[in-house]
Amino acid sequence: MFKCMFCLICLLCVTTISAQDQLGKVNVNPEKITVSGMSAGAQMAHQLHMAYPEVFSGAGLLAGGPFGCANGSLVTAMERCMGSVKAEMPVPEFIKNIRKASADGKLGDTGLLADDRVWIFHGALDTIVAPELGQASATIYTAFIQPEQVDYIDDVKAAHTFPTVDKGSDCDKTEAPFIGNCNYDAVGKLLQQLYGKLIPPTDIEPANLIQVELPGGTDAGLLNSAYLYMPQVCKAKGQACKMHLVLHGCGQSSAQIDKVFIQQSGYLPWAESNNIVLAFPQVTPAAVNPLACWDWWGYTGVDYRWRNGLQMQLLVEWLQQL
Q1: 5: Cβ–Cβ under 8 A, 6 or more apart, which residues?
Q2: Could you give the CA distance from residue 156 to residue 159 in angstroms, rounded to a whole number?
Q3: In the chain, which residue ranges form alpha helices assigned H by DSSP?
Q4: Can you tell me whether residue 29 is helix, strand or coil?
Q5: H or E segment at 15?
Q6: Pairwise CA distance, residues 223 & 255, whole Å
Q7: Which of the residues 116, 126, 151, 295 is marked catalytic?
Q8: In this structure, which of 3, 42, 195, 208 has its CB flanked by the most CB atoms within 10 Å?
């Protein structure tokens, strides 16, 4: 047993270093930075994409809802942005607000979204997030992006969970750590939607997961450390790699389940085969946010969904350093 545990630790090769120690070793193509997230992470991924289209060239949203749905109110978030939608989603209003916020400089230039690609997933058995929410996100995107560049999936019989080929709980169950054994490769689908055809992952155990400092994380409701996964080739000088920001869902922070989401979601093998640097920042549980959700309703302040929102600004500055 102890020998197996030691082997696992060696395979993961997790060390804690400062971000500065790592910066000179990562060569990232700034035109190939994308983001994805699950549930609250999907909400944050949508916010980041709209706020910083000059940084992100695409987004993958799993079991999330449309930009601005909560409108800065936890009550509104619970009433119209979760499992039941009592009235028609005001999508035209959402789109109008995005255009105005862009013109006011609160969001990025929506014209930069035109050539981006988006992947949106809603499990057919998901009762935590209503299907209207995923549909609303897709409709919002098609106001700025050609419909053929937006892939909306809603026919997989999955509950509120992150679908994998063979990891996690039964696919029809919504239970911690919210990873589903669905015989469905969500990561492979979303990454190929964002980047085009990729090389299938190998059976080799990925072994380049590094824990780094995330300065300022505590002030934004995050842990002061994050994880980077760097394929071996991305450490070589001259090799420009893609970068993908991964945002966990509520209850999936490393403060709650250690590295289970990072290891079982399926991102690592695809990244190793396709030279993709992965960034895994982590939310910290707190009294105002006990489930460690990303801020999509305003617990970090009224600017949470704008370019100067605490969490979004911190993440973008961190990525830009790389």
Answers
A1: none
A2: 9
A3: 2-12, 19-23, 40-51, 74-80, 91-103, 131-142, 186-195, 254-257, 260-264, 267-274, 310-321
A4: strand
A5: none
A6: 8
A7: 126
A8: 42
**In the prediction, which pLDDT does 21 show?**
57
218, 284 contact by CB (below 8 A): yes
**Distance between CA atoms of 312 and 47, rounded to whole angstroms?**
8
Give the pLDDT means over successive 10-residue stretches in the chain (322 positions): 32 45 68 97 98 98 97 93 85 98 98 98 97 97 97 98 97 97 98 97 82 95 96 77 97 97 96 95 97 98 98 96 80
Which residues on neighbouring strands pair with residue 120, listed in sequence order? 61, 152
Kindly state the DSSP code that residue 206 receives in the 8-state scheme: P
Find the catalytic residue in 36, 39, 57, 137. Answer: 39
**Active-site residue, selected from the candidate residues 160, 225, 244, 295:** 160
Helix (H, G, I), strand (E, B), or coil: what is residue 11? helix
CB 279 within 8 A of CB 314: no
- Sign of the Cα pseudo-torsion (311, 313, 315, 318, in order): negative
**Cα separation values, 172 from 4, 35, 180, 322, Å:** 31, 26, 8, 39
Report the pLDDT value the prediction gives residue 6, as an integer from 0 to 100. 28
- What one-character-per-residue DSSP string does 207-218 give? --EEEEE-TTTG
How many Å apart are CA 193 and CA 190, to the nearest integer?
A: 5
Q: What is the pLDDT of residue 237?
A: 64
Q: Are strands 276-280 and 225-229 parallel, antiparallel or unpaired?
A: antiparallel
What is the value of pTM for the model shown? 0.92
Chain centre to alpha carbon of residue 285: 18
Q: How confident is the model at residue 17, as a pLDDT?
A: 52
Residue labelled with tokens 């966990």: 248
160 catalytic, yes or no? yes
pLDDT at residue number 294 = 98
Q: 3-state DSSP call for residue 187?
A: helix
Tokens representing 241? 């790699």
Which two structure tokens, joined as six digits, stand for 44? 């944050």
Q: What is the CA radius of gyration of the chain?
A: 18
